[in-house]
Amino acid sequence: MKILYRFCLRAGISLSGLLLAVLPSLAHADYSWNFPTPVTPIARDTLEIHNHFMIVITILFVVVFGIMIYSMVKHRKSVGHQPARFTGPTGTVQWIWALVPFAILLFIDYVLMGIPAYHAVLDMEDTRTKADMVLKVTGMQWKWQYEYPDSGIKYLSTTSTPREQIANKEAKGEHYLLEVDNPVVLPVGKKVRILLTSTDVIHTWWVPQFGVKRDAIPGFLRETWVKIEQPGTYRGQCAELCGKDHGFMPVVVHAVPEPEYLAWVDEKKSKLAAAAAGSDKTWSKEDLLAAGKDVYEKQCAVCHQSEGQGLAPAFPALAGSKIVTGPLLSPEGKLLKDSHVDRVLNGKEGTAMQAFKNTLSDTDLAAVITYERNSFGNKKGDLIQPAQIKSLR
Amino acid sequence: MSTAPSIEHETGHGHHAEPYQGGVMRWLTTTNHKDIGTMYLTFALIMFFIGGAMILAVRAELFQPGLQLMQPEFFNQLIGVHALVMIFAALMPAATGFANWQIPLMIGAPDMALPRINNWGFWLLPPAAALLTLPFILALFGIGDGAVNTGWTLYAPLSVQGGMGVDFAIFSIHILGVSSILGSINIIVTIFNLRAPGMTMMKLPLFAWGWLITAFLLIATIPVLAGAVTMLLTDRHFGTSFFNAAGGGDPILFQHLFWFFGHPEVYILLLPIWGLIPHVLGTFSRKPIYGYKAQVYSFIAIGVLSVVVWAHHFFTAGMPVPALLYFMYSTMFISLPLAVLFFCWVATMWRGAMTFETPMLFAQGFIVLFGLAGLTGLVLADVAADAQYHHSYFVVAHFHYALFAGGIMGVMTGVYYWLPKWTGHMFSETLGKWHFWLTVISFNLTFMPQFFLGLAGMPRRIPDYALQFAEFNAISTVGAFILGFSQLIFAYNIWKCVKGGTKATDKVWEGADGLEWDLSSPPPHHSWEIQPVIK
């Protein structure tokens, strides 16, 4: 056993030498050793600070453990070293030697690292000076809502990675888990003040290339800012554990030149206006069912599953559910408490079931309620019109 | 430190040494510090393997992108319970086991001061561990939705939303907290009252000093945690709104309360280890401990600083600039007393006559790897850079360097150092060295890639990840499995040593210094019946 151990020790040493020799060839492009390329002033600052720190702590590490390893080689019994008996510094010279490292450490902490950190913090927290526009980000289980208060645009952004890819039934795409249906669009070169909040639990909005990470806290506003310097698509994701699909709520930002951004704003506005107009017309059942299926897959299937079977015990089944198959509205056309419509509009306190009236349009709500009442073996046969939803809000 | 006059020890005399009651009753009713120490250590070892099995399941899921083995709900349960088990049911009981075995031996006492409280302190642990893990089993029978799924930090409002696993965790934490406080009171009373004549506080062994500070920190912070989880309980079931903005509360209040406990907890876990390391270094360098007083003052300084830096755990939650700056600079200040410890450790070895038995290897491995934890901790204190590190795998790697390399490897150092004293047999050096090298190499293989994953932007606590993180995750998983299975060598070596082996001398190690080495191996039933006198 002992011989085997010695053999392995020697083999280990020569093997690690070999590994070091072939390491460069292992380090192909897929390994990333540092922060991704920064595209905002904050991210550039952060990367620079980080790089300095890494150099400083590497030096500290090498010096301290260099001394230790030197000692381990020289001061061992097997080379006949006789142990000294000292227990502390004696004399002025030794005291100076003992105190110098701590003076150096204080210098590193409060000058070398402390001063750049001070400036970086002030810069990072200065969200208001010369801010060109505001973006409001609302986290919710498990998607983001983006709102542009200046132009009245507001929409949801959910992951667009197909469930089949996650379940390994399909080949994974290039941007697996880091792709969404409606990305945020921001102009380059503008200081964007970002306000964050949440409707349920704490989420964290993080785009590594922006150097920005800030929590979205229910009931409170937090803020940060970005000034993107290069056009491009930047990807990140939620960074605070927020329940079941925490790993599946990506952030995607399209940074475009200002004219392109303005064109996007106009286009988005007219699309949203068209969708809102839809709530005034009377819809046929077929159209509601077709639209409802789309909304269901995007917003509801995460928890209630694609066939409405639910995910016991936290996420109840909709198939055969008492609530879904209960009465639609009171005989006077009023909202019934704890009815299907009430649940979808107002959510259920203390659960992941959120108040969808805050995020979905009248049309989407009417469509998805109609769809749920007439799918998964539920055969209510009734329907609700967007106009009715509008009056119930 | 001077040593005691040699005393003849009889193991089987007098009314105190009546034969043990047989079987289970012996262990249920024992008030002997060594029996209770053994139970603490055995319990810790078992829970170490249970917590380890949980995280191997997690690492297996993370071997490749996509969901292969489990759904996210179950994944979230495993990561949280892994942490709670490792911290509260493995590391803390292991340190308490050391205290029970060693403090009376090292300070010249016959036993702990409060033996019945000691027994009660231990027997609270198994029910607490059962409460923590029971929801897993209940879920198999269709009751409830599994164990606590919020991560060990239990952040509101996620924990308000969670299933009954959260309630089980809350009560488990209450019981564990009572156990810790009882243990701490016992240790404080023992150290203050049962020291051998002539052993002033400034002659107290460093291990006892480390534990003394830990005990005070536990008493100061566990009630805060208990309060926080009780508020959580009433928010969940009795309609209060401590953490609910709609009712006038604040979710961030929970983070403040939690980390007011949580940061000192790191030092609670590490101070006993920092106390034990100098003894090992001195023994195997055949040299007295360097800078005894400096180390004592550093322990005290770290204890005090630990309760005023908590908010660096949630810089990204947003706080006023002066608060950010205060918590950043105060956190950086901890590097100073910690650097004193590192200086003293290296200086204790300097110009000694070192040999490299297993405990020494673990102690030196501890110093290097814990050094990495300290250095990465220093950069994490920087608010600007922290915005990138926070909530990412960089943090995961950092605290595993602190708590595995710093905590668990420290415990292993202690086990190998004192095991011959406890059992009267030498363990297998060869197996010990195998265990050391496999642990160190696979530990780095597991956690070094996680630093790079964090820098590249992988958030922690996600069950599935983007393709660019695949290679490092695969390496990390391979490392984790080697690391996990290497620990079987540790268990086997302990088992063999308990069963038999070369007889250990009283002094066990050539360079050993301290009262415990004057007793026989294993020590008599009532350790010091006649207190030694320290000159």
From TrEMBL, chain A:
Biological processes annotated in GO: ATP synthesis coupled electron transport
Cofactor dependency: Cu cation
Cofactor details (free text): Binds a copper A center.
Cytochrome oxidase subunit II copper A binding domain boundaries: 130-267
Molecular function terms, GO-annotated: copper ion binding; cytochrome-c oxidase activity; heme binding; oxidoreductase activity
A Pfam family annotated for this UniProt entry: COX2
Catalytic activity: 4 Fe(II)-[cytochrome c] + O2 + 8 H(+)(in) = 4 Fe(III)-[cytochrome c] + 2 H2O + 4 H(+)(out)
Topology with respect to the bilayer: Multi-pass membrane protein
Keywords in alphabetical order: Copper, Electron transport, Heme, Iron, Membrane, Metal-binding, Oxidoreductase, Respiratory chain, Signal, Translocase, Transmembrane, Transmembrane helix, Transport
Signal sequence extent: 1-29
Chain segments annotated as transmembrane: 53-73, 94-118
Compartment annotation: Cell membrane; Membrane
Domain Cytochrome c: 287-376
SUPFAM superfamilies membership: Cupredoxins (SSF49503), Cytochrome c (SSF46626), Cytochrome c oxidase subunit II-like, transmembrane region (SSF81464)
GO cellular component assignments: plasma membrane
Keyword Iron-sulfur: no
Main location: membrane
Cytochrome oxidase subunit II transmembrane region profile domain boundaries: 27-123
E.C. designation(s): 7.1.1.9
Function: Subunits I and II form the functional core of the enzyme complex. Electrons originating in cytochrome c are transferred via heme a and Cu(A) to the binuclear center formed by heme a3 and Cu(B).
Family: Belongs to the cytochrome c oxidase subunit 2 family.
NCBIfam families reported in the protein's UniProt record: CoxB (TIGR02866)
UniProt protein name: Cytochrome c oxidase subunit 2
Automatic annotation (TrEMBL), chain B:
EC number of this enzyme: 7.1.1.9
Residue stretches making up the Cytochrome oxidase subunit I profile domain: 27-535
Recorded catalytic activity of this chain's protein: 4 Fe(II)-[cytochrome c] + O2 + 8 H(+)(in) = 4 Fe(III)-[cytochrome c] + 2 H2O + 4 H(+)(out)
Pathway: Energy metabolism; oxidative phosphorylation
GO molecular function: cytochrome-c oxidase activity; heme binding; metal ion binding; oxidoreductase activity
Membrane topology classification: Multi-pass membrane protein
Cellular component GO terms held in the UniProt record: plasma membrane; respiratory chain complex IV
Coiled coil start-end: none
An individual GO BP term: oxidative phosphorylation
Cellular localisation: Cell membrane; Membrane
Keyword terms: Cell membrane, Copper, Electron transport, Heme, Iron, Membrane, Metal-binding, Oxidoreductase, Respiratory chain, Translocase, Transmembrane, Transmembrane helix, Transport
Pfam families named in the record: COX1
Principal location class: membrane
Annotated transmembrane regions: 36-58, 78-101, 122-148, 168-194, 206-233, 266-284, 296-315, 327-348, 360-381, 401-419, 431-452, 472-495
Record's function text: Cytochrome c oxidase is the component of the respiratory chain that catalyzes the reduction of oxygen to water. Subunits 1-3 form the functional core of the enzyme complex. CO I is the catalytic subunit of the enzyme. Electrons originating in cytochrome c are transferred via the copper A center of subunit 2 and heme A of subunit 1 to the bimetallic center formed by heme A3 and copper B.
Family per record: Belongs to the heme-copper respiratory oxidase family.
PANTHER family noted in UniProt: CYTOCHROME C OXIDASE SUBUNIT 1
UniProt name for this protein: Cytochrome c oxidase subunit 1
Organism: Accumulibacter regalis
